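Question (not urgent): is this output format expected?
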Amino acid sequence: MDYFSHSTAIIDEGCSIGKGTKIWHFSHVMPNCKIGENCNIGQNVVISPEVILGNNVKVQNNVSIYTGVECEDDVFLGPSMVFTNVVNPRSAVVRRGQYSKTLVKKGASIGANATIVCGHDIGEYAFIGAGAVVTKEVLPYALVVGNPAKQIGWMSEYGHRLNFDENGQAVCEESQEKYEINDGCVTKL
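Got this back:
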């Protein structure tokens, strides 16, 4: 094995797990999951069948990642955040096979205790604040907070607020990388 799994972790058959990945205490990786290289799966995490995680994905403790979710490279999933996969769940109605898809794009961060309602993609480097309830698509680099989540600003790839000048330009305070806003969309220059 090119990855580490704690003795209490359960990894079902048919999973692909990349080199350098670590799976910690009491976590369960269900059948046919694809987990990339250098991921960290915290304690008490459930990864449902056929979930896809890219490289360098960090999953904090007590996270549930349900079928239909795909996370690209460098995604951060904060403690106890959760995805849903059925819009209208009912205990007496079987909706297996009707799971909605959710794509979390490269570099996005989802804060502790946030909920991502299924079918709403999260853009590259978006930042979902702790406790937010996402009920619609989140744009790349957007900062959203609250219930329901509302966009209150923009974030750099290093996780700092971007303050755009009158020319639509901003500089990340840490990386000094430059960004531009045009027609409500942010791009890195």
